[in-house]
Design a protein that fits this description.
This protein has 506 residues and is α/β, with parallel strands linked by helices. The chain has a domain of 117 residues: Serine carboxypeptidase S28, SKS domain (Four Helix Bundle (Hemerythrin (Met), subunit A)). 42% of the residues lie in helices and 11% in strands. It contains 18 helices and 10 strands. The protein has an 8-stranded mixed beta sheet, sandwiched between helices. Helix 8 crosses helix 9 and helix 9 packs across helix 12. It is globular. The relative contact order is 0.14. The structure holds 2-acetamido-2-deoxy-beta-D-glucopyranose (5 copies). The site of one 2-acetamido-2-deoxy-beta-D-glucopyranose has 2 residues, from loops. Pfam families: Peptidase_S28.
């Protein structure tokens, strides 16, 4: 993940928690390593199950200045699924747009089966727009991540403007100006969808924001809530499981301190290459627990990694299943193997090492500029305690990119503090869906704000679970959550048609 570049290596050894977490306190919505492997996978994947056509739109580099470079063009990728689109005689069937997040757009399209499931009912056109600087939408090609000179154009405000411009152009080209647009997004994409509705109400009539932690900024939610939530997921499965994981970190450090300890860890953790830093092992283990909590789906799925249904329960079953006397590291290693090796295809694990030669990737930049989500780890969690030190974070960002983070920019630009009070009288037509098994839910909107800014919360849901395709194994509460979403969407669209027909009468 991100910061294993040579120049930063000495810093990693000082880190009290994840090597990566100091630079971007959230364990990243999606780790770059996962994105890379998924990108590779999706290139060879059989796309016929989600049929879409691929397009490129000449997008302007900078929407907010008129400097000479601003009008430079790059090609922004978008996908369309028009199978069910019926413009009708009045050209008014809706357009559902997925506001892409930090990864290649095919990956999000493939994991947002919900939109494909509902397209026939709404006779909707589906459009998935790739976020600038990800996938193939890189404004400076291979050099896009080179420095702040190029990365400076990677901001959420530029991304939202991209979406608005592309949507307007597309509607014009399709003679679909009268079609209502609803934006959809999950995770960071959900944050973008919600913000898009607030910033561009004339372009989108509503937003469905799934697992969107728009309140994970400043001190709106307790900084320890994310890791506490991960820990609760494990603790409610089994206190023994929680306790074994919690106590394993000291065991890990103790082994590392012994003579020949690193060789022992290399062996225990079946590392492909000799492990150099105990912190890499800690990261590797922590990442398995954090990501499994995020995708603790009630059905078998392959979002981050292929996993069985209820993977947290499965991990705890592995830990609890060992006879007494077995050491904790063996237990936690086996549990983590569920995450890394459920497919059984790995002969060893890449605990260290990163294929990103610059140690740079888009989300790290975003976390070092706008997306400052402070996180701490409390002693009540199953992880090692960690205090967020803003000064250190700032220095790391300055060192890595030569930029200073703007920790209060997001809440200044989009709001967030006292969101209920603000959005009660301003804004409408946003669904915030969350599943409480997902640690990101703690930074989400979990309460209804007004009659049209609605929170749909499931206790057993996980990271944008509602966006996955319906399956025959779906529990009732999941089907009900999706049905509630469909009903609300239908209401917005009906209202829009009603409003427009009244307007055309006058
Ligand atoms: C993709 O899947 C479809 C339907 O399952 C199949 O007919 C087709 O041969 C597959 N194509 C490739 C390249 O695997
Ligand atoms: C709309 O058409 C114009 C002219 O052909 C083209 O340049 C533009 O890329 C199209 N817009 C979209 C969103 O594809
Ligand atoms: C991954 O799982 C397979 C099948 O269970 C097993 O043979 C293999 O040893 C595992 N890999 C590692 C590195 O543990
Ligand atoms: C955890 O931290 C709290 C607050 O700092 C402290 O009161 C408590 O004693 C600590 N508990 C343990 C088990 O260290
Ligand atoms: C918000 O209101 C809807 C009904 O409009 C209800 O179904 C839902 O449970 C409410 N959400 C919360 C978190 O209370």
């Amino acid at each position: 993940m991100g910061f294993t570049s040579m120049c930063l290596l000495p810093l990693l050894f000082l880190l009290p928690v994840f090597a990566t977490s100091r630079l971007h306190p959230p364990p990243i919505l999606f780790p770059s390593a996962t994105i890379q492997s998924l990108t590779q996978k999706s290139k060879s994947a059989n796309h016929t199950k989600v049929p879409f056509t691929t397009h490129f739109f000449p997008q302007q580099l900078d929407h907010f200045t008129f400097k000479p470079q601003a009008s430079r063009v790059f090609y922004q990728k978008y996908l369309m699924h028009a199978t069910h689109w019926d413009k009708g005689p009045t050209h008014t069937a809706p357009i559902f747009v997925y506001t892409g997040n930090e990864g290649n757009i095919e990956w999000f399209a493939e994991n947002t089966g919900f939109m494909f499931d509902i397209a026939p009912k709404f006779r909707a056109l589906l459009v998935f727009i790739e976020h600038r600087f990800y996938g193939e939408s890189k404004p400076f090609g291979k050099d896009s991540y080179k420095s702040a000179e190029t990365l400076g154009y990677l901001t959420s405000t530029q991304a939202l403007a991209d979406f608005a411009i592309l949507i307007r152009s597309l509607k014009q080209n399709l003679s679909a100006e009268a079609s209502p647009v609803v934006v959809f997004g999950g995770s960071y994409g959900g944050m973008l969808a919600a913000w898009f509705r607030l910033k561009y109400p004339h372009v989108a009539i509503g937003a469905l924001a799934a697992s969107a932690p728009i309140l994970q900024f400043d001190d709106i939610v307790p900084w320890s809530s994310f890791y506490d939530a991960v820990s609760r997921d494990f603790e409610v499965e089994s206190t023994n499981c929680f306790q074994v994981i919690k106590e394993s970190w000291d065991d890990l450090m103790a082994v590392a301190d012994k003579k020949g300890g690193m060789s022992q860890l290399t062996k225990t953790f079946r590392a492909c290459k000799k492990v150099k830093s105990v912190y890499s092992v800690r990261n590797w283990l922590s990442a398995a627990f954090v990501y499994t909590a995020m995708v603790d789906y009630p059905i078998q799925a392959s979002f981050m990694m292929p996993l069985p249904a209820y993977p947290v329960k499965e991990m705890c079953r592995i830990i609890d299943g060992f006879p007494s006397g077995v050491d904790r590291l063996t237990k936690v290693f086996s549990a983590a193997s569920l995450y890394y090796n459920y497919s059984g295809a790995n002969s060893c694990f890449e605990i260290e090492g990163n294929s990103d030669p610059h140690g740079l990737n888009g989300w790290d930049w975003q976390a070092c500029t706008e997306m400052v989500m402070p996180m701490t780890i409390s002693n009540g969690s199953m992880f090692t305690e960690f205090t967020f030190d803003y000064k250190e974070f700032e220095e790391d960002c300055k060192f890595q990119y030569g930029v200073l983070p703007r920790p209060h920019w997001i809440t200044t630009e989009y709001g967030g503090n006292k969101i209920e009070l603000v959005l009660k009288r301003y804004g409408s037509n946003i669904i915030f869906s969350n599943g409480m098994r997902d640690p990101w839910s703690r930074g989400g909107v979990l309460k209804n704000i007004s009659s049209s800014i609605i929170a749909l919360v499931t206790q057993l849901g996980a990271h944008h679970l509602d966006f996955r395709s319906a399956t025959k194994d779906d529990p009732k509460w999941l089907t009900e959550q999706r049905e509630a979403e469909i009903k609300i969407l239908q209401g917005w669209i009906d209202q829009y048609y009603k409003d427009s027909s009244e307007l055309s009468k006058t």
